[in-house]
Amino acid sequence: MHPIPELLAPAGSPEAFWAGYEAGADAFYLGAPDFNARKRAKNFTLEEIEQTVAFAHQNSRKIYLTLNTLVFDSEIPALTDLLLFADQAGVDAIIMQDLGVLSLVRSHFPRMRVHASTQLFCHNSLQARFLKDAGVSRIVLPREMTIEEIGLIADAVPLEYEVFIHGALCFSFSGCCLFSSYRFGASGNRGECKQVCRLPFGNGPERSYPFSMKDLNGAPVLQELLGKRPAALKIEGRLKNAEYVSTTVSFYRQLLDTYERTGRVPRLRETLKGQRAFSTGYFVRGAYESLTAPDSLGTLGEKAGSAFIPENGLVTIIPKIPLSKGMRLRLMDTQGRVACEGTLLHFSTFKGKREDKVQWRLREAQTSDQTHTVYLLGSMQPPDPRRTLRHAFAFHRTTPLYLKVRHENDVLLVHASAEPYVHDCLFSFPLTLEAARGEQKENALSAAVSKIFCEVDRYPFSIKVLDVVMPAERFCPPRLLKEIRRTVFQELFDAWNKMHEAKKKELKTAILEALNEIQKREKSERLPDIDGKKTFQTPLFIPETKVEDWKKTATSLIKHKVIVASTYGQLSLLHHGPEVKIYSGQYVYCSNSFAYDFLTSKGANACVLPPDIDNNTLGLLAQYKSAVRMRELARELFVTRLQIPKKSYALGKDRFAVVSNREYDVLVESGL
């Protein structure tokens, strides 16, 4: 047998989770309504997360909760509540982007596993070592890496590594796209990306989609990738429907299972179909021409009709084909832009003057007087798994229970401990036993007591130890024993809950006090902002093959008075004494007090604040003595490993230019 990685599926909804479960996924990543990078997905309620975790664990699957957005100080109380919930629900790990969240979790939730999101842009061993030392147990690698680089990082810093194998690709480096934030006030680092890379640029005959990427299909290079022993292969797609999840998981399940048996990845006759053309991404160093599809947005699907949005969030569709519940629809405006996309769930049909019409209620309110074209992306009426998930949760046992039952001097003694809060409770019940009836076995009473106390009923107890010693040749009516058991379990449950709530309150208080302490300590006269044109900035992207060369270069930077470390992994290399000041760069994303405190503890003399987040949003952080802004720099919109064709790009009235670096290109605002 050949070892294979975990197959990790997206779950943007309970229906998508169920589709992936039935198709054979080993683990799932899903989000709550807040603090996740796919706010447009249907996502899960907290109750649904509890139920899904229970079902997954009962069926040997894992659940990873996405907390992969930047967080502000004003959101720390709500974030803390979600972390407390995740800890109690028993999620197998959280996926995070914010270094402040990482610091908070490691300080206050020591047992919780943390996976570093691809948004942390861990592209070399400097980054990986920093994250490993900070307490991360797995790193989700960026999609912009070759198979060779994946192997080199894994050799340099042994750890679990997760690799995207299939799905949509971003034009910009993971976590380094600010275009949506600048243009629409909707940050991809806050789960609100408007996919500017899919918009048409230019006008007339020059109109094209120069930043629209083909989708990733890693099957052609899977054999080579498996040789690097990744811990998990990840399928992108929390915005996709259950049909996509089912089909894609099934495809890769077949490939992995065959490899496990034979050591070879087969070539399947049936291939995956996508909304766009496929490429093998950056696995084999990709070029702009092979990874992008500038001539079209991609395969739009079947034309299903036309639509307009006269009221806020209510679409009126004139269908050309029959529409039914579960269909995935996309609305495109006359400029080729995606107006909305979703699954047809809440809708009604009515007769118009000339034809039947469909009214569809969108999840996000919007209004438009344009006529839109409707495309059918897929259709599936997935089963609703909620009843099954609720049933699983009803029988979920998470609290270890230790019991010792004795009978002495006409008293039944029950010693009980319910971890981790209730220890060595003693319950006593007057109980006079009767003589054994008929031909009762010698230890029949002990067996009867054991059986009754193993029945935990509705309580969340998992019996770990049950030690019963009862007199021989004695009898007790089962009714009395069951009443005693119910009393013991109810009092234990009440005591456990009381202690649990007290611990949660204590932990939340400690976190908020830590936040308040940082705010009081750091609020003072700020350092002056720095001039980006006169300050030395380290490269944002250093491929693993160039790390050793760059380490040698770093020793010569002592001539600079201020050095901006563009990535967190560079901080430890840049210290040359008190005469050189090291600032963490804008893409390190110091967006809250915990991130600020963490970065300054790791060697940053000051932190450059994210350029697309204003001071009002950052709150007191913007007033800290070592929190600065970088001035005199053009706005950076995309940062990519691809070599962008060198020309001017237009989006409406705005113009953009390409700035080339040794290993990457940057699209910036242009005054031309």
From TrEMBL:
TM ranges: none
Coiled-coil regions listed in the entry: 497-524
Keyword GTP-binding: no
Keywords attached to this entry: Coiled coil
Record-annotated Peptidase U32 collagenase domain positions: 383-492
Official protein name in the record: Peptidase U32 collagenase domain-containing protein
High-level lineage: Bacteria, Raymondiibacteriota
